Amino acid sequence: MIEIDGSMGEGGGQVLRTSIALSTVTQQPVRIARIRAGRAQPGLSHQHITSVQAVAALSDATVEGLSLGAQEIEFRPGALLGGRFEFGIGTAGSIPLVVLSCLLPAALSKGTAEMVITGGTDVKWSPSIDYLTRTHLPISGKFGLECSLELLSRGFYPEGGGEVHMKVLPAGTLRGANLGVRGRLLRVGGVAYSQNLPDHVVSRMRHSAMKRLVSAGDVCIDSDVRRGRSTGAGILLTGECENSVVGQAALGEKGVKAEALGEGCATDLLETIASGTVVDEYMLDQVLPYMATAKGSSVVMAEKLTGHAETNIAVIESFVDRRFSIVEKEGLIEIAVD
User: β-strand 62-64 against 73-76: which pairing, if any?
Assistant: First the structure.
């Protein structure tokens, strides 16, 4: 049984999510101890429990120690067969983080995997559901992963109430991908969204972002205004390039004007584009498990080696007999696996 220290490196829930995903695809049981030990509220939250339950359902796994606040679990995977499942986080816990836990096991299942997940779609310390749809999935698709995400309702903190339908087709095996060259910028896209707020909130976010992006060329930002159980707003912007997509997001907060939210997100995107990176700082650690489990070599260029990426590499190398190489090139970081 593989032993993982859940407090290693960055020490967050990513260690847990990567460990259980790789446990299923490598068919190696794992014991994860000291889960989130250094955090203000250590151990498993509702969102972490749902992530483990979802991956366990996909892989017919047995799990010991799974309870709220637990700092150690044992996960023993079975066969990855796919299927249809429903999971409710029960709070505004992050649906996107549950999705990220499941994508790799679902893609390597023998049959189609479909899930209905309820909880939070747009919450702090998590990628937004639009980031997954507009940034993560186009990049993971280069490895052969085919996934569709349907947003039925948005969920904000604290009420939640979001609902997402996920469908992942069996890929057989993933293929290596070359993310070493970004190519030229084709367009800037994205979406400004709100729920239970006046329509002008989205208009103000969108217009302030477009004003800041006037030098970026072709810009198209969608609007999404809804009514639902919870209240909130945010914006996701993407730089769509010939060989990649980079994204930046901003979530609304009390006291922060819509104009500041849109302009700030646009500024962050312009800085990301100007850096020359092929993937943004959030996608970097997310792409590493695909690289390690795909057939053939893969490479990715990033602005810097983040703490999340460094931690994920350590976890991944505990499960697979492959090693990442990391070198500096032209002011960027190249991460490769043969």
Answer: antiparallel
Domain 2-174+289-337 has CATH 3.65.10.20: yes
CATH 3.30.360.20 segments of the chain: 185-275
Is 48 considered catalytic here? no
Q: Tens digit of pLDDT for each residue in 210-247?
A: 999 999 989 999 999 999 999 999 999 999 999 999 99
pTM: 0.96
Question: For residue 164, which amino acid is it?
Answer: V
Buried-state track 281-318, b at ≥16 Cβ within 10 A, e below 16: bbbbbbbbbbbbbbeeebbbbbbebbebbebbbbbbeb
In the numeric block, the tokens 């249809």 are attached to 84
* 10-residue mean pLDDT series, the chain (338 residues): 94 96 98 94 95 97 97 97 95 96 98 98 96 98 98 97 98 97 97 97 98 94 97 98 98 95 98 97 97 98 96 98 95 96
140-152 per-residue burial string, b: 16 or more CB within 10 A, e: under 16:
bebbbbebebebe
The CATH number assigned to the domain with range 185-275 reads 3.30.360.20
Angle in degrees, 0-180, between the axes of helices 95-107 and 281-293, rounded to the nearest 10: 20
Give the span between the Cα atoms of 165 and 180, in whole angstroms.
32
Cα–Cα distance for residue pair 305/266, rounded to 1 Å = 23
The per-residue pLDDT for 94 is: 97
Instruction: List every span in the chain annotated with CATH 3.65.10.20.
Output: 2-174+289-337
Q: How far is CA 173 from CA 27, 79, 169, 235, 309, in A?
A: 15, 15, 12, 34, 23
Q: Out of 136, 200, 207, 308, which one is annotated catalytic?
A: 308
